[in-house]
Design brief:
The complex is a heterodimer.
Chain A (H helix, E strand, L loop, with lengths): L11 H4 L11 H13 L2 H21 L4 H18 L10 H19 L20 H6 L4 H10 L2 H12 L4 H7 L4 H18 L5
Chain B lengths: L8 H8 L5 H11 L3 H18 L11 H9 L17 H7 L9 E2 L4 E9 L2 E8 L8 E3 L3 E7 L2 E3 L2 E3 L4 E4 L8 E2 L5 E7 L3 E3 L2 H9 L3
Antiparallel strand pairs in B: 1-2, 2-3, 3-10, 4-11, 5-8, 5-10, 6-7, 6-9
Helix pairs in contact in B: 1-2, 1-3, 2-5
Classes of the chains: A mainly alpha, B alpha+beta.
Amino acid sequence: MAHAALAPRQHTFYRSRPRLLLIEPAEPWNLLLRRVAETRDRAAFGLLFAHFAPRIKSYLMRLGVPAQQAEDLAQDAMLTMWRKAALFDPNRASASTWIFTIARNLQIDAIRRHRRRQFDAGDPSLARSPEPGAESGLEMQQSERALRQAMRVLPPDQNEIIMQFFFSDKPHSQIASELDIPLGTVKSRLRLAIARLRAAMGEAP
Amino acid sequence: MTVTHHPDELLLLGHAAGRLEEATTLIVAAHLNFCDRCRSDVAGLVHAGGVLLDDIAPVALADDALARTLARLDAVDAPPALPVSRDNTPAPLRAWMGRDLSDVRWRRMGPRLGYVNLMRRGPVALRLLRGAPGSDTGRHGHRGVEYTLVLRGGFTDETGSYGPGDFQIATPDTRHNPVADAGEDCINLAVTTGRLIFDGLVGRVAGRVFGF
């Protein structure tokens, strides 16, 4: 599956980025992840690290995480990937969505851990969570291909909102106002986008 | 149990992207504990974020980052699981508090109301609120936004009835007087991003005294 398919070219948000991955299919990452799981292959881990750690660091910095902390969290995400690699199922998710889920959950837990109470036993980032986790995400009856397809055919105005919220370096509160459309419109576009994603995942609306 | 009041789409997206501040991310996470629909919406958005991750411009790590991470691989062990909750306290809230709801020490606010200040950061406050059946907090408005998640029991105000898992969003335009429903005590988790404005002198003084 070509990464080019993900990017509606008509939009400047995408155009401004160097498109380093245009010629690389996603499958090699899946294979490397399988090798990590099956043979604890450190060379494969190194290749995954070289690709994903800098992207995770970039994602976290866009959320406002300081550079050093983003670096530490990116390394933690890679460690979690190493530990949980056996749970990765390439039929359900690509390596990048799976690894992103790990990084995102670590970030959520880091926000909470910021003011953890001393009597807090155990590490919630590693406890069973009712949230979509790396494992439960895989258990969902969803097809990665359908989701990619849905992202591809999402109208640019809906795609833009999702893209901005995930990967803009502006604070949450600024994004909605700088989209330069009324808040109600932002919400209704988002509602449509969620409905399409939900449909792609094979769930009733 | 059917959840009928949900966080809005921007809250779900902000949560999926890991962008909300601590108190708000906690109350949204606790809602997902009750609500299959929002949980699957967030799952879809998180996966969408993963699909988009390949397009992000990378930021280089320190030169020795890989070496240091490789050195840590052998030390990675399976984590201990948190013991099971005795009273179905939503997992994210329980992990954050480090205890069950039953073990919380309530502060009294009159004979029928109780509260626990969980966190205050700048204008944002996170609290547990508890009301005996039929009790009310007094009519009030809001300088900021107030998110309320019902954990136990229920309450009713001018905008409708809210039961376990329901998520109310009150804005500066909202004035309401929530009354706890009959039956068990109503226990809510609430986030406010500004002070509440109570009607009447007594309400105003009480609001100040208790830090609302």
